[in-house]
Amino acid sequence: MKSKREAVQMKTLKKILFALAIGILLIWALFPIFVMITISFKNKFEIMGTKTPIWPENPIITNYIKMWKTVPLLHYLKNSMIVCFATVGLSLLISVPASYAMSRFHFRGKDTYSVMVLATQLFPGIIMLLPIFIMYSNFTALTGIPMVKTLHGLVIAFATFGVPYSVWMLKSYFDSIPNELEQAAMIDGCTRAKAMMKVVMPLVLPGIIATAIYVFLLAWNNIMFTGILADQSTRTFANGLQEFSSENGTEYGQLMAACSVTTIPLLIIFLMFQKQFVGGMTGGAVKS
C-alpha cells in the first residue's frame, strides 16, 4: 500500500515538475514578445528612460497610427505576401515531383543528386548573393528581362533555398507511405500519376503544409537578399522596418508597433494550419 502511494506521489511530482519546466520555457519564449508589445504603447521618453517600468504607465496608441504614415507598410506588406506565396508555390511545384521521384524510383545518379541537394544546406546564404546578382545582371543583358529590383527576381532567389529543403523534407513523407497502396490503385486501373494524386497526396498533405509554412517563413524573414535585389518599390515588410531608423534616431515605439503587426499574418497562418503543421513535423519521422 505504501509503495503504491509513493508511486502515485512520484508520478504527481513528475507531472508538477514537467508543468513547471514547460511554464518556464513558455515565459522565456514569450517575454521578448511581451516587451515588444509594451514598448509599442510607450512614448519615446518612457522608452529611453533608465527607470521606466516594464508596463507603460500611460499607454498610448499613437505609435500604431503614426507607423503607417512614417513608412509605407501596406505597400511592403503587399510585396511580402506576393513574394512569400509565390515562393511557396514555386518551391512546392518543383519539390513535390522531385521528392516523389527520389522516393519511388531508382535511377542513375540518384545518390549523387541526393548528396548535392543536401550539400546546398551546408553553405550560408550570403555566399550565394553575389553569384545570383551576377546571373541576374547577365540574364537581363542577354534577354532584356529585368531580374534585379523585381518581385519575380526575389521569388526565384528565395526558391533556390526553399526547394532543396522542401525536397528532403517531403521525401521523408513519401518514404513513410507504403508503396503497396499505389500498386493496389494501379491494379484497379489508375495510372501512376492518378495513383499519386488520389492516394499518396492526401496522405502527404500534412507534410506539404508543414513544408509550405517553413518556406513561407524563410521568405518572409529574408532581409539580406531583399536588401540587395530589391528597391523602394519592391521592398518587403521585413526590410521596410529598417526605415524607422534614420540619422536623426530610431522610432522605437513605431518600430515595435510595426513588429507587433507583423506577427499577425504569421499567427493567423499558423493557427489555421497548426494541426497539419504539428502532424507534418512528426509524420515523416516514422516510417511505415
Provide an overview of this structure.
The protein has twelve helices and two strands. It is flat, with a radius of gyration of 24 Å. It is an all-alpha fold. The chain has one domain: Orthogonal Bundle (MetI-like fold). The two termini are 43 Å apart. A two-stranded antiparallel sheet has the order 1-2. Helix 7 crosses helix 9 and helix 9 runs antiparallel to helix 12. It has helices at residues 2-40, 44-48, 62-70, 73-104, 110-119, 126-143, 151-175, 179-187, 192-220, 224-229, 237-240, 252-283, and strands at 245-246, 249-250.
- CATH topology name, in short, is MetI-like fold
Shape: flat
- Work out the oligomeric state of the chains in this entry: single chain
The largest β sheet comes out as: 2 strands, antiparallel
Strand content: under 5%
What characteristics describe this protein?
288 residues, mainly alpha, MetI-like fold, disordered C terminus
Q: Quick summary of this structure?
A:
The protein is mostly helical. The chain has twelve helices and two strands.
Topology:
Layout: H1 2-40, H2 44-48, H3 62-70, H4 73-104, H5 110-119, H6 126-143, H7 151-175, H8 179-187, H9 192-220, H10 224-229, H11 237-240, E1 245-246, E2 249-250, H12 252-283
Antiparallel strand pairs: 1-2
Helix pairs in contact: 1-12, 3-12, 4-7, 4-9, 7-9, 8-9, 9-12
